[in-house]
Automatic annotation (TrEMBL):
Keyword flag Oxidoreductase: yes
Origin: domain of life: Bacteria
Any GO molecular function: NAD+ binding
Homology family: Belongs to the 3-hydroxyacyl-CoA dehydrogenase family.
Sorted UniProt keywords: Oxidoreductase
Source organism of this protein record: Microbacterium immunditiarum
Domain 3-hydroxyacyl-CoA dehydrogenase NAD binding span(s) in chain numbering: 53-233
The protein's Enzyme Commission number: 1.1.1.157
Pathway assigned to this chain's UniProt record: Lipid metabolism; butanoate metabolism
GO terms classed as biological process: fatty acid metabolic process
Oxidoreductase recorded as keyword: yes
Protein name: 3-hydroxybutyryl-CoA dehydrogenase
Annotated stretches, region: Disordered: 1-46
Amino acid sequence: MSSVDPSSRFARSGPEGWGAARSPGVSPSTHGNARAATEDSAAGLTSRVPERVGVLGGGRMGSGIAHAFAVAGARVVVVERDRESADASGRRIRDSLRRTAERSATAGEPLSPLDALSSAFTITTDVSLFASCGLVVEAVPEDRTLKAAELARAEAAIAPGAVLATNTSSIPIEALAESLARPERFLGLHFFNPVPSSQLVEIIVGSSTDSAVVDDAFGWVSALGKRPIIVRDSPGFASSRLGVMLGLEAIRMLEEGVASAEDIDAAMELGYRHPIGPLRTTDVVGLDVRLAIAEELERTLGERYTPPELLRRMVADGHLGRKSGRGFYEWNDR
């Protein structure tokens, strides 16, 4: 067993970074497309997803993660806290599969039959069904205490050789690992909403994470058709630290009357070629999620991440963005 040395892994960037150093012959530019799985196999990395994958928490993110692994060929066990939540998760997954099938049909792309994909899921309240999973991803809400408790519960149910991952957006991996007996089998897999169509997954590596676990995760993410990036454990990692800062400043500008939401977003979309502006992004992510991440980063990085009062008010009023039908924009396609 070998742990990862962050000082050596992050001393270099670009092609000399983790992917090339750990997997000779694999170009970082190929990770995230269909060829990556084959090339990773030739380099000695995992070339397919585990046969069985567990997801703890079947909300918007958990359902999306389950969807992605099922489409890649895994059988997926989703564990929810009660039967009502499990039923809601099942509906979310079916709706997500249906939308993907409709988009693929429109584009003329082949896709497994909807009923075949649906049969790949077991949605339950019984955490003991994780015992046969090679990977379990925790995807409960962004609350440090809740995540630590749920990760410990999942670890107690899985096999010693299985990998446990958290989908946290901002909570340090080291803090969550404190509740675990096997931190060397633990890392972060930060997926992005909406999971089925997003192209990026952050792999967050703790000081105890075994290097073989990182290699496996890199291969699994590539097999999903997504681009893996390796990030050292730190508050907010790479994406949230940058994205939340931009989003909070955009909200402050709206609060101060600098410009309308549409014009603030247009400034970034047209002026800086961002595919989607920071306020629209916040609506898609969820204002409640953005607030939770900002509060976590404020605790660890200071007042530069203090949430604007406008964000707090909108969350308190139930204006959570796309999922509630209203945020900085009106949404009719929930």
